[in-house]
Amino acid sequence: MSCLSCGAAFHTSGISGAEIRTIYDDEYALARWSPKSDAQRARAYCSWIRSECAASRNILEVGCGSGGLLSELLQAWPGASGFGLDPALSEARRSDDRIRLVRGFVEEIPQDAGRFDLIIAVNVIEHTAAPEMFLKALRSHLAPNGQIIIICPEARPPNLELLFFDHLYSLTPSALLAASTAASLAMRKQISAPQEIGNFQMIVLGAGASSPITPLATSSSDLYAERHEYLGRWARLDQTLLDRTAAGSRILAFGGGQTAALLRAYAPRAWSRIDAIAVDDPSEAWTLGPAVVSYQDIVQRTGSTVLVGTSPHVQTLLAERLSRDGLRPITWNDLIPC
């Protein structure tokens, strides 16, 4: 559903706090599945955050995952100490003189943690049952003159975030402003991510009851129509992929990460034809059912049909590579361009 006032999207049926907690049990291993990609992502987010705020001494990261981003920030700011919190944190969590990692949700931050002059939540707020309550919880741990950095997917144009069950909200700048105001926080900045990071946005918040930032006015009804069309394209994807492959044929896939997982969920009939998933680095592949093989292994199978299971914006380049190597690529970025 979409709010025609602020433009936020949310689940038609509510999800209880208990259900949310079950998502992040011991089997939730997103940060551990692709360690090299996780490290690269941490470096990119660190660079972006440093470009928008000065060095801080006491940092809290809520939803810290592996702790990679917090470690990058502490390396960049030698005088800083960090506290990381994540409900799916591995038992092999790390703590030392400069960094402390604790498993839990925002309401479970220990009393002895103190207050922080920088609080970070990267791709967390969209997972929360009530964004304004989440921001209020962060504000309660904010030091005087401190700031909060929230990074989350952009709502426009509609993108992959609408397909994840645990993304309870898709938040426009207007929706983020409303939640921030309800939490007595002022929105100091709203910035789109650098191209290499993708369809994400950053808001920088400080204590205050009003905001000097007025998000650009957009038509919420138009955004609703765009979302409806985008999700309709995903609904047609399974049949489209079946039409592009020979009836009953067995195929290969290239790509073993997030987009491949979405294909498994939203194109199950096409996915059931896949014999193996080829990737350049098998150690980075998610566990998605079919066997994982090195790309060099499938190059020997000249003429094989290969479903491209990577982000739509890179499918054209990958299809050219597959074709040069004698394979027959199946792309779908004409149906879903981003």
Write up what this structure looks like.
The chain has 338 residues and is an alpha/beta fold. Helix content is 32%, strand content 22%. It has helices at 17-23, 30-33, 35-52, 68-76, 131-139, 173-182, 220-243, 258-266, 268-271, 295-299, 315-324, and strands at 9-10, 58-62, 81-86, 99-103, 116-122, 142-153, 169-170, 185-192, 200-207, 251-254, 274-279, 291-294, 305-308, 328-330. The strands form three sheets. A seven-stranded mixed beta sheet has the order 4-3-2-5-6-9-8, sandwiched between helices. α3 (35-52) crosses α4 (68-76) and α5 (131-139) crosses α6. The longest helix has 24 residues, at 220-243. The model has no long low-confidence stretch (mean pLDDT 91).
Number of DSSP helices? Answer: 11
| Percent of residues in beta strands | 15-25%
What is the CA–CA distance across the termini? 21 Å
Structural class: alpha/beta
Low-pLDDT regions: none
Our Rg estimate from Cα atoms comes to 21 Å
- Range of helix content: 25-40%
Total number of strands: 14
Largest β sheet strand count, sense and barrel closure: 7 strands, mixed
Q: Could you state the order of secondary-structure elements as H and E?
A: EHHHEHEEEHEEHEEHEHHEEHEHE
Average pLDDT level: 91
Dominant shape: globular
User: Which strand order does the major sheet show?
Assistant: 4-3-2-5-6-9-8
